[in-house]
């Protein structure tokens, strides 16, 4: 008579099962930070690619407009350059005309957890625009109509020290669409300088490398 094989079959005890589960949990805990770090690095590369495309759009605008940066016609109008670039077709977004435009395309940083973009008044009727998670250095375009007697509108080839001066980069979503460094990528931020080269800087490097804000 053939004996049943059930008696000779190996079975796990409850203790052994718990040990296996504990080992799996420990391995997962060890691997998850590494996976998150890899995802953060990948998002940082995508963000940098976005900024390079924004840089190209700014240069195309400048080529068509005698070298001038997109204008910021008055104080508290920091969104105006982005409105100009999107409505004139230099940057393609899903919606660039709505009062509360959500960031999309190359104006959305993949590492930014906010669904909205930076918020800024963009015309004298008090409408707000929040379609970008990147900021443009206001000292390059500020008060272009000299409303406040503080005109700083520049042509791109007239900027002194172009390799040192920040132009466009990660900015805080709770601020405005001017450039205010936001450390979104493993305690670092991405920025493009006026000469077109890209940098990824931590907070110390941002402020320790000399005056890079005022051209």
Total DSSP E strands: 6
Distance between the termini: 95 Å
The count of domains is: 1
Overall body shape: elongated
Q: Mean of residue pLDDT?
A: 77
Count of helices?
3
Poorly predicted runs are none
Q: Identify the strand order in the major beta sheet.
A: 3-4-5-6
Major β-sheet annotation: 4 strands, antiparallel
**SSE class:** alpha+beta
H/E element sequence: HHEEEEEEH
Quaternary form:
single chain
The value of Rg in angstroms is: 25 Å
Helical fraction: 25-40%
Written overview of the protein:
- By secondary structure, the protein is α+β, with helices and mostly antiparallel strands.
- It has one domain.
- The protein is 30% helix and 11% strand.
- The protein has 3 helices and 6 strands.
- Strand 5 and strand 6 (198-202) form a beta hairpin.
- It starts with 13 loop residues before the first helix and ends in a 7-residue tail after the last helix.
- 35% of the residues are buried.
How would you summarize what this structure contains?
30% of the residues lie in helices and 11% in strands.
What structural keywords apply?
single chain; 215 residues; four-stranded antiparallel beta sheet; 30% helix; elongated
Question: What layout of secondary structure does this protein have?
Answer:
Elements: H1 14-64, H2 80-87, E1 120-121, E2 128-129, E3 134-136, E4 166-170, E5 188-193, E6 198-202, H3 203-208
Antiparallel strand pairs: 1-2, 3-4, 4-5, 5-6
């Amino acid at each position: 008579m053939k004996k049943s094989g059930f008696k000779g079959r190996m079975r796990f005890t409850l203790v052994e099962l718990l040990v296996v589960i504990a080992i799996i949990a420990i391995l997962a805990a060890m691997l998850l930070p590494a996976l998150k770090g890899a995802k953060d690095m990948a998002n940082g590369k995508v963000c940098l690619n976005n900024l390079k495309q924004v840089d190209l759009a700014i240069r195309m605008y400048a080529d068509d407009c005698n070298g001038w940066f997109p204008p910021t016609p008055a104080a508290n109008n920091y969104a105006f350059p982005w409105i100009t670039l999107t409505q004139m077709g230099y940057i393609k977004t899903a919606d660039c005309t709505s009062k509360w435009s959500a960031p999309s395309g190359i104006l959305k940083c993949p590492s930014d957890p906010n669904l909205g973009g930076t918020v800024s008044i963009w015309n004298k009727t008090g409408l707000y625009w929040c379609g970008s998670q990147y900021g443009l250095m206001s000292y390059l375009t500020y008060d272009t109509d000299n409303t406040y007697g503080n005109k700083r509108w520049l042509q791109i080839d007239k900027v002194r020290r172009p390799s040192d001066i920040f132009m466009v980069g990660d900015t805080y979503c709770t601020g405005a669409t001017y450039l205010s460094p936001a450390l979104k990528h493993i305690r670092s931020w991405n920025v493009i300088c006026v000469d077109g080269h890209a940098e990824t800087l931590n907070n110390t490097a941002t402020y320790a490398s000399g005056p890079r804000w005022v051209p």
